[in-house]
Structures are given as C-alpha cells and as structure tokens.
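Running this now, will post back.
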Amino acid sequence: MKITVIDGQGGRIGRTVIEQIKKKRPSLELYAIGTNSIATSAMLKAGADNGATGENAVIVNAANSDVIIGPIGIVFANALLGEITPAIATAVGASDAFKILIPVNRCNHWVAGCAEAPMSEYIRIAVEKLEAVLADAEA
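Update: finished.
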C-alpha cells in the first residue's frame, strides 16, 4: 500500500503526521511529497522513506497512491499562500487514493462540522483513520 503525505510551507503538518505514523508502524513505507524543498526536508527528517518536491512530484505520486494524507488545502487551487497550483489540486482531487484531509480553518475557508481543536488533535484523528484503513486492507 502506497501512503503519500503531501504538505507545503514549512512541512510542520506533514512532519507531525509522519512522526506519529512511524511511532505506530515503523516499518510502513511513507512517501513525503512537498510543494517546496523545506517541506520535503522536514518530512524526510521525521522518518519518511522517500521524498520528492514540486508540482510534478505531486501529480506523479497522487496518481499511484493508495492513501493521501495532508492539510485540506491540498485540494484547493492557490491554497497554502499559492503553493497549491491548480494542477496539484486537480491531481489530488482526481486521484483514486483514499484521502485523509486535515482541517485547517484559514486562507478563506472554513470546514463545517469541524470543532475547533488544536492541530495535534486533528493529526491524531487522521492517524487513527489511517490505522482503520490499513486494518481494513489487511483483513
């Protein structure tokens, strides 16, 4: 199963996601795809097994991933202060991968139904969902 973590900016969300996944499943192979080299580097330092940077890396890896995890902005063109190009948003949105999107209520969007919670809580919930997806796949 190919699990891809996509992030931009400084890669803080992706880094934390990878750290938490690796604590639970150290042998799981994770792909870190950053919209910039700082984000990719942060995710690789957190323990990702593979990393790549940029629009084409997102497009290629989204197409053959089984699970994509990242901030909700990865499906909005021009999000993350413009780092998410329309091509990136389209590639992630069109991917057949199961998407685990972490709510971030800023950049002119708000996710209805999401209680205000610290980012660490959203990431904990996202990692729990990944565990459920993996358990279903292993059954």
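The beta strands are 3-7, 30-34, 50-53, 67-71, 98-102. More later if anyone needs it.
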